[in-house]
Amino acid sequence: MTHILITGAAGFVGFSLAQRLLQDGYQVYGIDNINDYYDVGLKKARLDQLLPHDRFQFQMLDLSDRDGMLQLLEVNSFDYVVHLAAQAGVRYSLENPWAYIDSNVTGFVNLLEGCRRNPVQHLVYASSSSVYGANTKTPFSTSDSVDYPVSLYAATKKANELIAHTYSHLYGLPTTGLRFFTVYGPWGRPDMAYYKFAQAIEMGKPIDVYNFGKMQRDFTYIDDIIEGVVRVMLQPPKQTLAQADVPHPPNSKARYRIYNIGNNNPVELMQFIGALEQALGKKAEMNFLPIQPGDVLATYADVDDLTRDTGFKPITPLEEGIQKFVEWYRWYHRQ
Q1: Cβ contacts of 328-331, under 8 Å, gap ≥ 24
Q2: Is-catalytic flag, 329?
Q3: Which InterPro entries match (predicted)?
Q4: Catalytic one of 29, 80, 153, 167
Q5: What's the rounded Cα separation, in Å, for the pair 67 and 49?
Q6: 11, 84 contact by CB (below 8 A)
Q7: How many CB atoms within 10 Å of residue 324?
Q8: Given the DSSP bridges, would you call strands 175-180 and 256-261 parallel, antiparallel or unpaired?
């Protein structure tokens, strides 16, 4: 039976992926340090959904634990590794930069070392649309330079891509980085704007709308993200004869790829708030504020490479995804 390791299994994307892989018949091993960056109760509630499965195992483990990570990869024979654990959030990186280095950089190297010494068929890891930083050309393409991050979180994700390429080049480790674009949906993260907006609107409190609402995001529904992850995972990159003198992922000779996973349809923030209002059946009271440090004006994913290589393109309409989130939100918070 195929054995898959998911790091960050108590997180939003990790939990959702574990559910899907268990449904598909795989054996899943999850790790997470269950930190208190956001509500630990939600993380434990996600795990409660997974633990009854006889093909799911869980271990509380921090990525920065070098010996623990190496032992994990030595003791278990994983076929695939999907690395979704990270210190998340753009604004929090202004307050606690060390958390991002420990988890997103040191922890990532610990995982790579484990995979190098105990070879796996494919290591897939979460990057982020935030790596595009100050880029103004849209849609964002994996062939674009991403040398100007505007947050430490983005810089650590760019570092992950660079370090992964080194391991692919030196050791033949197949790696693929996935640049996620504003993931939303049931069981989502309460530190994300859409979740905070829903909570405030339900309670009749004002919501903070940054840059006076003049922002766009390529909101991507969780099921679309998971479909993309699974398809990519099952297609490890092959070594190519491409010339590596053009500095972007498709031209590396290593077993290394980068893909965007986004809805390919940026939405105005005010339109997004309107969809939430409609699903909730309540109007929002808005507190308009300037743009915050680390924020970008717009994100927009070019997914042509993903569609070409996997046959998949995210398809869930915003209104449908928001409705499903609101239904889950009300169920979860009224238990």
Answers
A1: 328/185, 328/186, 328/187, 329/186, 329/195, 329/198, 329/202
A2: no
A3: Epimerase_deHydtase (IPR001509), NAD(P)-bd_dom_sf (IPR036291)
A4: 153
A5: 29
A6: yes
A7: 18
A8: parallel
Instruction: Supply the CATH classification number for the domain 3-181+220-262+300-316.
Output: 3.40.50.720
Tokens read off for 42? 């939600």
Tokens of 235: 């297609």
pLDDT in tens, 123-157: 999 999 999 988 888 898 999 999 999 899 999 99
**Which pTM was predicted?**
0.94
* Backbone dihedral angles phi then psi of residue 283, each to the nearest 5 degrees: -90, 150
What's the CA gap between 208 and 250, in Å, rounded? Answer: 40
Structure tokens at 277: 């209002």
Q: Per DSSP, what are the bridge partners of residue 30?
A: 6, 58
Residue 53 tokens, joined: 């499965």
Closest CA relative to residue 301, chosen from 181, 192, 150, 182: 181
The residue to which tokens 């490479």 are assigned:
305
> First-to-last CA distance in the chain?
36
Helix (H, G, I), strand (E, B) or coil at 184: strand
Contact 29, 59 (CB under 8 A): yes
Q: Which pLDDT tens digit goes with each residue over 223-246?
A: 999 999 999 999 999 876 555 455
Domain chopping of the chain, boundaries: 3-181+220-262+300-316
276-305 pLDDT per residue, tens: 999 999 999 998 888 888 677 878 899 999
pLDDT per residue as tens digits for the range 47-63: 999 999 999 999 999 99
Q: How far, in Å, CA of 278 to CA of 257, rounded?
A: 39
